Structures are given as structure tokens and as C-alpha cells.
Fold each of these.
Amino acid sequence: MNANTVSEIITGILILTGTLFCLFSAFGMIRLPDVYTRSHAATKSTTLGVLCTLFGAFLYFWINDGYVSIRLLLGIFFVFLTAPVAGHLICRAAYVTNVEIVQDASKVYVKESDSD
Amino acid sequence: MRKNLLMLHTVTRIVVFIILAFSVFLFFAGHNNPGGGFIGGLMTAAALLLLYVAFDVKTIKQVIPFNYTTMIAVGLLIAIGTGVASMLNGDPFLTQYDRYVTVPVLGELHLTTALPFDLGVYLVVVGVALLSILSIAEDDA
């Protein structure tokens, strides 16, 4: 196994992990009951997913083309820094405008599964 | 409710520098890579707008005392000036000159007169974007 194959396996695993995390985040957006839990799903796992995807692209171009992309590193740092704060601000705006918190999420799921 | 936007303020202070640095990078990358005066100017305007949103319009006006109307005028003058400079040299309007210059620290650079023209575009874009947004924001009547 030469370096090219190893790099392709590593970047492939990283990018697949990233897309999977984004998919889980989308499931969370559909399944979870209120703004706060949805924000929890959206900010955390999408941030990790985007970071994994960008880092996979960074490693691929570094190993295969010998091109160290500062822009990708800066993008990783930028998303890591700003996405949680964006989630925080959205949750805060929801709380200030008195958006209801679902107290017992399990009851919501039980109701949905009963009606199906 | 008392406003305490500590998270927003702290992150804005860090992030604005990243955006400004990236906008300058885009501005200089325009000749050989995607980028240029227009997108660099928009990005600078976005960074300044983030400051205006995160803090207060009055506060930022004290911190960054730019007059965006004069900024538009200066940008247009620079863009016209690069055109007129080639006319003074005996060539048609907006003829582009380029030269390889060796600078002590940076090494050999390919300098063109397209860069000052792009600087004019940059200043006009920053000025127009911020002037239009701020004049809407300040419309209290």
C-alpha cells in the first residue's frame, strides 16, 4: 500500500464521517421537538461534520498535490469559532421572544408513535 | 431584559480580523486566482457590518471614523487616475503597464497598474455597500 492509497483511505473516511454527521444533524432537525433541542442537534453535529469534511479535503490536497491550503485551515477555524455562537444567539433570541420549551420530550415521541 | 452580549462581542472581536485578513488576501489574489476588488470589497464591508451589528452604530462610528461618501469619491478618482496616467504617457486610456520589480524582503514581484484600478473598485464597493446599509439603518423617522 503506497502513500497515495493510504491518503485516499484516510480522506475518504474523514469525508464520509463528516457527511454522516451532517445527515444525523438533519435527522435531529426533523425528529427533535423544540427550538432548543433542534439547535443542539444542528450546531454540534453539523460543526463536527463540516470540520471533518474540510479537514479531509485539506489532507487530500496536502498529500496528493503537496498544496497546503491555508484557506481550508482558516475555514475550519472560522466554522469552529462561529457556528456555536450562532446557535447560542438563535437560542437566546428564541428564549427572549418566549418560545415554549417542550418539558417532557418522551411524551411527544410516544404520541407520534401511537398515531402512526 | 438587560442586554449582555458577551459571547457575540468576544467572538466578533476575533472573527473580524479573520474576515478582514481574508478580504485583503482576496483583493491581492485577484490577478492569478479567484478574487479581486469586488469580492474583496464586499468581504471588507461584511466584516465592518458585523461590527455594526454586534456593537452599536454610534460606537463603531467613533471607532472607525470613515466617511463612506468620500470613500466612493476617492475610489473613483483612483480608478480614473490609473486611466489618465496612461494617457499622459502617450498610450490610450486605461493601458495596463506591468513590470517585474525586485523588492528587498518579498523578492521579485509582478507589479501591474491593474492593482490601483482594483483598489479603486475595492473602495467604491466598500463605500457603496456600507453607505446604503447604514443609511437604511439610521432612518429613524
Note: Chain A has one domain: 3-115.
Amino acid sequence: MINLPLLPLLIPLITGVILMLFPNRLRLQRTFSLISTFLTIVAAVYLVYRVRQDGILTVTLGSWPAPFGITLVSDMLSALLVLTTSLLVFFVVWYSIYYLSDLHQRFYYYIAVQFLVVGVNGAFTTGDIFNMFVFFEVFLISSYVLIVLGGKPAQLRESLKYLLINVISSALFVMTVAFLYGIIGSLSMADISQKITDINQPGILSVIAVLFLIVFGLKGAIFPLYFWLPGSYQVPPTPVLALFGALLTKVGVYGILRTYSLFFSHQQEFTHQILGWLALATIVIGVIGALATRDVKQILIYNIIVAVGVILYGVSVMTRQSLEGAVFYLIHDMLIKAALFLLIGVMIGIAGSSRLKDMGGMIKDYPLLGWTYFIAALSLAGIPPLSGFIGKLLIVRGGFEAGDLVGPFIVLISSLLVLYSVMQIFIRGFWGTPKTYSGPKRHLMKQLLAPALVLVAITVLYGVGTEAVRPFIAQAVDPLVDPSIYIQAVLKED
Amino acid sequence: MEIIMAIAAGILTMCAVYLILSKSVLRIIIGTGLLSHAAHLLVMTMGGLKTGAAPVIKDGITQYTDPLPQALVLTAIVISFGVTAFFLVLAYRAYQELGTDNLEEMKGTDTHD
């Protein structure tokens, strides 16, 4: 199985192509996408197992040797992210079967989801910087389709803006790759990482590092490039929002993580300091937004921005401990954000509105939903036995050990305010005077709650089983701390 | 030669930024077209513009131009072509539904689900 790293890309790709043949056979569409996403999970689990056994796996497409052909690289980080992506998509597909109207599903919805998975998994797996651009475009174009599907006026309006922002950032990506190619003369990430230290042009390389920060920051919504996110994420239906909130911004974060550990280690006091300050500003902006709004969707959307800031703060410190924390928190956040979006989707389905003033006293009629949400909210804030704790602990400890006294405090205070913002939903939505609800999806409560419950259970397991997960995370951080492991695995110099 | 091309790409970017900052959707789409032109021109320029034969293998020719940037540009062109087509159709639909092509009038945070 030398082509194993390709499997999580090929399965959704082939499924997407097959599904195009019969867009109107809904039952077949659903079974096919469920089976294929399940197969993707199986492939991803096996991939993680093999990477754990044999170290970094590489596939050189067409057997062209490494710097000349395109290489796909599965190290532990990308394998874990591919596994998390496949898991999430399975639950979101399961959820959308009940949540979305038949008409909505008929218009190539599952096909767009499959291609989104191809793009995201590809971006996590690729070892070539231009190939990464292509995979970015694959999932962006799928996301354009998903965000506008339904064609309501607000969706058309906001997707115009979303599209424009991403067209600009894609053009910037191409320009940045052109600059990098002009200086290094190579596109393979391992080869660039090797040559970038020999070339010794710190000035221009720092400029390119900042350009990459702008490009990936636009995808990942860091301060001050987050402005498009609250509006755009408000309009798509909740399952799509769960996909976007859990996956798309995290690909930008992964891009920063990869380029800043692999390429730009020559002038850390400049580039990583910029990243650190921007990450802290991102946390502050996200927290302010989450506290200011009284709309359940908006509260969680601003919490995406907070999480991006926390992860990137861990990346900017660049010690082993903080990077471990960042990877822990990255995976935790992908899982818990998807679970929370699925849960508030049920709430919106019951109340028929996403405003908190239209909700109240839900705990009386829907206790299971309420307490699941409660656990998920505690987990998001990082209460000890749950999954958000260990990542934040490592990030904060790493920050203190690196001698930073401001950053860790901002991270800690942000946890408190994040807890306050999500507890607003619990206090106002679930407690208070009960109301009679006439939302359109009340009768589907049980079917909708099932995938969300399983996803919350997985995050609880991820938190409780930290000891079991730790060696995998440690292996994922190895090539980030020491790029020569990555370079050697790809270029095979021995 | 590279300097002239760099200036040309710069002017294209300048016009693109100016157009993207305007209010009308169509002007913005023209701006994104210019922006992708600028990016493609930059890729070609950064690969180096030294003289050589077209990258097709023939007997008796030893010096070729760099084939890699040409392949990159070809990929980027089709991608931006696809996105622009989608953008134009989206703008058309938005004009039909919203009755305006002025971005200043496309405001509001009403929720739809």
C-alpha cells in the first residue's frame, strides 16, 4: 500500500464524480456519501496507524524523484488532521440528511461536500506549495457552491463578498509563490526548506513570510483580516456552517503552521513576533465579538476567531511544548466547533430563529439537548476533564516558559470570557421562562441530535484519553520542531 | 526586461485595486480580472525572462526558456477562468434577486436558515 496517503483524497474524489451521474436519486446519493465518508474514516485511521509504525509516508506521483515531481507527504500532523476532517464530514453528512430540505439536497449538495473534502484533505497532505494552492482552490470553489446553494437574497449578497475576498487572497497566493520561486527556484516544500537556509537573504525572505501570513491569514481569519467572516458565515444553513467553521479556517491555520515551521526559521524574532501579536489581537477581537452579540450563530462564529488566535499564539511561541498544545487545541477545536454548530442547529430548528430572545426554558422539554450543549460548552472553554483543557494548558505553559508574561494571561482570560459567551446561550436559551415553539424542525429533534451526541462523545473521549493521544501528538510535533526529519523523509538523502 | 514587466504588473495591480474598491459589482469583477492578469504576469517574470527557444524539444537547440512557470500560469489561468465565470453568474443572479449592483446597498444581517 505505497499509495496509502492518496486514499483519503481518492475516495471522496471518485464518489463525487459518481454522484454527479444521478443528482435526483436522493436515497442513493445519501447512502453513497455515507458509505464513502465512512470508508474515508477507515482509510484515515489506517493511515494514522501506518504513520505511527513507519514514520513519515511519502508518495511521489509518477515516480519522478522528489524535488522534480509532486510529492504527497503524510506526517503525523497531516494524518491526524485528515482523520479529524473525515470524522467531521461523516457526522455533518448524517446530520444534513435530516436537516436540509429535499430540494436543497437535490442540487448537487453531496457532490460539493465530497469535493470540499478532497480539497481539505489534499491541502493537508500535499508537499508542494503550488499544489497546495490548487487544493485550496478545490475546496474554495466547493465552498462557493455550498454557501450560495439555496439562493436566498442574503446568501447571494454575502457570497459575493466571500467570493471577492477569496479571489483576492488567491491572487496574492499566486504572487507569493512567484516571489518564492524567483528566489529559491523550487516548489517542493522540503526542497525549499533545505535551500532557504543556504540562500541567506533574510530581508526578502521575511517579506515573503509576511506575505504568506497575509495569504493564510485571509483564509484563517486572523486580525485584521477577519472582517469577512462574521457576515459570510451567517448565511449558509447550519450543516454547511459546521463544515466551514470546523474545516476552512483551520486549513489557513495549518498553512501558517507548516510554512512558519518549515520555511521561516531564520529570523524568528521578527516574523514570529508579528504572528504572536496578531494572534493575541485576534483573540481580543473574537472575544469582544462573542460577548457583544445576542445571536447564537454569531456567538459561535466569533468563537472560531478566538480559537484561531489561541492556536496561532501557540505556533508563534515555537517551543516544543507550545506546538504540542497548538496541535492538541487544533484537533479539539475542529471537533468541538462542529459539535456545537450541530447542537445550535437543533436549537434553531426548534425555535425557528437564531436570536436568543426567541428562546427560553428549553431544558424543560429538551433536557438531553440542554445537557449535551452544557458539556460541549464546558469543553470549549477548557474545563479540566474535557478536551479543551490540555491544549490550552500546554500553550500557556509554553508561553510562560518562553518568557512571555502578557500572552498567556490573555489566553487565560479569553477562556473565561469564551465560557461566559457560550453560557449566555445556555442560561438564556435553556433556562428562563418556557416558551411554546413552532420551529419547522421540532419533530426531527431525535434524528438531528444523534450525530451531534456522538460527536460530543468523541470530544469527551479525546479529553479523557489524553494519555493515549499524547504520543501521536508528540510525533506530529517532531517535524515541526526539527524540519530536517521532514526534509530527509521527502528527499531521501542517506 | 524584467523591470519593465515588473512595472507592468505593478500598474495592473494598481488598476485592479482601484477597481475593486469601487461600488459597482461589474467594476469589481473587471478588477479581479486585472488582478489575476497581474499575478500571472508576475509568475512569468519571476521565472526569469532570459532568451531561449520555446520549451519544445528539438534537435540542435541547447537553451530553452523555463517551462515550469508556464505550466503554473496555465493552471492558474484555468482556475481563475472558472472562478470568474462563477462570479459573473453570481453577480447576474444577485442583480436579479436584489435589484441592485451597488455594494453599498447590499447590507443587513438578517438570518436565513
Note: Chain B touches chain A at residues 20, 25, 28, 32, 35-36, 38-40, 42-43, 45-48, 68-69, 72, 75-76, 79-80, 82-83, 86-87, 90-91, 93-94, 97-98, 103, 106, 108-113 (CB under 8 Å).
